Amino acid sequence: MVGSFYLLFLAVGLVMGGVVAWFDLSVYWSIFAFIVTSLSCVFVFRLFGISKQGKTRTATSDANVNLDIGSEVYVAEWSNRHTYVNYRGASWQAILADNAYTEKAGTHIIVDIKGVILVLTPK
């Protein structure tokens, strides 16, 4: 999606070059207006752009990509941060997330999937 913004910036630069050419100025002024406008847009985007918003997530932990993220499972017991849970009609291996410290039985939420292992946090 970021590439679309750069194409938009090139288009804005071309429009500014066209505006300068419409005033019957030299082609060098049109090129200068194109370059300055495009680079200014890129600079502002880098400074305030959407790439600064939010933290990056992998596809395995993004709920927009993996619909299992955010689902609830019931954990009967833990053994050294590992367990087995029944999810979607099958038995899955599960581990406790790195930022979770309590190994309590109960309802947990899927926050990531590493291969065939569910990563869980307490609810």
Describe this structure in words.
By secondary structure, the protein is an alpha+beta fold. A hairpin with a 2-residue loop joins strand 2 (82-87) and strand 3 (90-96). Strands 1-4-5-3-2 form a five-stranded mixed β-sheet, with no helix packed on it. 35% of the residues lie in helices and 26% in strands. It has helices at 2-22, 27-48, and strands at 72-75, 82-87, 90-96, 106-114, 117-122. Helix 1 runs antiparallel to helix 2. The chain has two helices and five strands. It has two domains: 2-52; 60-122, Beta Barrel (OB fold (Dihydrolipoamide Acetyltransferase, E2P)), CATH 2.40.50.140. The two termini are 33 Å apart.
SSE diagram, text form:
Elements: H1 2-22, H2 27-48, E1 72-75, E2 82-87, E3 90-96, E4 106-114, E5 117-122
Parallel strand pairs: 3-5
Antiparallel strand pairs: 1-4, 2-3, 4-5
Helix pairs in contact: 1-2
Summary, kept brief:
The protein is an alpha+beta fold and 123 residues long. It contains two helices and five strands; from the N terminus they run H-H-E-E-E-E-E.
- Order of strands in the sheet with most strands: 1-4-5-3-2
Question: Average pLDDT across residues?
Answer: 88
Structural class: alpha+beta
| Uncertain spans | none
Strand % is: 25-35%
Number of domains: 2
Round the Cα radius of gyration to an integer and report it.
Answer: 26 Å
CATH superfamily of the largest domain: Nucleic acid-binding proteins
Number of H- or I-type helical stretches = 2
Largest sheet, strands/sense/barrel: 5 strands, mixed
Helicity range: 25-40%
Distance between the termini: 33 Å
Order of helices and strands: HHEEEEE
CATH fold category name of the largest domain: OB fold (Dihydrolipoamide Acetyltransferase, E2P)
Q: Which CATH C-level class of the largest domain is it?
A: Mainly Beta
**CATH architecture label name of the largest domain:** Beta Barrel
Number of strands: 5
Q: Can you tell me the overall shape?
A: rod-shaped
